[in-house]
């Protein structure tokens, strides 16, 4: 059994390069949140319903020391064999005719990696093209761009029979306008008064000078 699993692990190193269209895996990639359940599907298009479909995982480890782990194999007779370090409460597999569905329960970030299905023929091994699983604690959120709000200036309008756009003038605005007009009139009156005083004084001076 150990030698058979060893040969299986070595053969699975070629899975990513020699994925066959005979085994259709879906989805191609999936991103899941922690503690959720993920379903991976493998369909053997050109095989009989009695074909056993194996599931492997390529661990997402840094560097070149990546290796494959045998997870589980099942068939239509519900005869299921699990990997050496795989808990039955962690995953289940069910086979429906030529389709195998692998369910991963309560996934964690360490469950991230590429999952492959495989069939054993005589003498060749056939691999699916793999499903890339990424498990995150929280899904990233896309920040929405903030829109700058520009305040529109309101134009004052006087009441009239003609309808015009814009808010009507308030009492304060009208009061300021009237006050400004009064100040202009007073200033004009003072200027005229001073002008006449200067002219009168000049006439007096001229009369006294020519006496």
Primary descriptors:
211 residues, alpha+beta, seven-stranded mixed beta sheet, four-stranded antiparallel beta sheet, 2 helices, 29% strand, rod-shaped
Quick recap:
The protein is of the alpha+beta class. It is built from two helices and eleven strands, in the order αβββββββββββα. The chain has helices at about 1-10, 170-210, and strands at about 25, 30-35, 40-45, 55-60, 70-75, 80, 90-95, 100-105, 115-120, 125, 130-135.
Characterization of this structure:
With 211 residues, the chain is an alpha+beta fold. It is built from 2 helices and 11 strands. The protein has helices at residues 2-12, 171-210, and strands at residues 23-26, 29-33, 38-44, 53-59, 68-74, 81-82, 91-96, 99-104, 113-120, 125-127, 131-136. The strands form 2 sheets. Strands 2, 4, 5, 6, 9, 10 and 11 form a 7-stranded mixed sheet that branches. It has a 4-stranded antiparallel sheet with strand order 1-3-8-7, with no helix packed on it. A hairpin with an 8-residue loop joins strand 4 (53-59) and strand 5 (68-74).
Radius of gyration: 45 Å
Percentage of helical residues?
A: 10-25%
- Helix count equals 2
Number of strand segments: 11
Q: Which oligomeric state applies?
A: single chain
Blueprint (SSEs and pairs):
Blueprint: H1 2-12, E1 23-26, E2 29-33, E3 38-44, E4 53-59, E5 68-74, E6 81-82, E7 91-96, E8 99-104, E9 113-120, E10 125-127, E11 131-136, H2 171-210
Parallel strand pairs: 2-11
Antiparallel strand pairs: 1-3, 3-8, 4-5, 4-9, 5-6, 7-8, 9-10, 9-11
């Amino acid at each position: 059994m150990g030698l058979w699993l060893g040969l299986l692990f070595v053969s699975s190193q070629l899975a990513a390069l020699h994925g066959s269209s005979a085994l259709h895996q879906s989805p191609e990639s999936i991103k899941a949140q922690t503690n959720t359940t993920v379903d991976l599907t493998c369909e053997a298009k050109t095989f009989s319903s009695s074909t056993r479909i194996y599931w492997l995982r390529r661990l997402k480890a840094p560097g070149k020391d990546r290796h494959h782990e045998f997870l589980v194999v099942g068939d239509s007779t519900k005869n299921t064999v699990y990997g050496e370090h795989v808990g039955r409460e962690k995953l289940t597999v069910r086979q429906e005719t030529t389709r195998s569905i692998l369910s991963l329960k309560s996934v964690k970030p360490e469950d991230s990696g590429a999952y492959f299905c495989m069939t054993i023929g005589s003498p060749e091994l056939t691999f699916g093209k793999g499903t890339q699983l990424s498990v995150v604690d929280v899904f990233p959120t896309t920040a929405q761009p903030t829109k700058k709000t520009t305040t529109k200036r309101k134009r004052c309008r006087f009441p009239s029979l003609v309808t015009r756009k814009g808010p009507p003038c308030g009492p304060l605005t009208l009061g300021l306008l009237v006050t400004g007009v009064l100040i202009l009139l007073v200033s004009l009156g003072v200027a005229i008064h001073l002008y006449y005083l200067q002219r009168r004084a000049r006439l007096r001076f001229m009369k006294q000078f020519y006496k």
